[in-house]
Amino acid sequence: MTELTRAEKKAKEVRQRMKIASPLPETVADVKAAVKTRKDRSVLELEQKILTLEEAKCKIIAGYEQRLKLKDATIELLQTKVGSIEEGESKNKEMEAAIKEQEAKITSLEAVEEENKQLKLDLDHLQKTSEYDQKMVQEALSAAEANLSSKVEEHTLLQTKLVNLLSKLQVRSKMTQALSELDNDIAELSDQDGHIVVQESCTHIYQACDAIDVEKIKESLSPRNMIIDERDDFPVQEVEVEKETSMTMKKLASMMACGASLPLAAE
């Protein structure tokens, strides 16, 4: 820019010199002066052309410098844009990586959701199975309670039957003892042939026989009144008592028949 200013100043000086008016030459000196003036004008024109060229050169150089600066600015701008593009690409890559990560998370969440659905179905199935098992257990408990109640009733009934049986055995034992004693008394009052020889003893025997309810004894000894459980330990003893009582009754009946055939002598 400094050289351009200098060239412009010189061009202004040359223009001012060319504007000086010169009269027509009259003498040789005037001719020389005119020639010199022409030379000066030519020189000035040449200098003006040179200055113009220099000015144009300076302008061209300035234009090139301006273009270079603009080019440098454009290059810097392009570099900035390239950097921003690279940065954008880097951010895009980061965004793509983040998107892929989010997609992976979404996929894992979908898998977890499916697993939760399956777990919910399994839980519902287990709940239904548990309710069914609980119902079955409740029914089994109710059946067990009913069975236990029936078993308790059966046990109570068996205890009652056992008490009755023991009572009957005691009665039969007493009866057996009484019949045995009666048998001994009859044996003492009988002769070798088995006949009763004393009338008072016969009367005593008759009274004793009348006191014995034979039908009641027979009824107590009947099979339908003998309730004996197969699990009891008494059947053998019961059968023995029955046999002994039956034999005594038969013997007593025969003795009563013999006593009925004897005469009633007071002496």
From TrEMBL:
Coiled-coil region(s): 85-129
Origin superkingdom: Eukaryota
Keywords: Coiled coil
Protein name: Uncharacterized protein
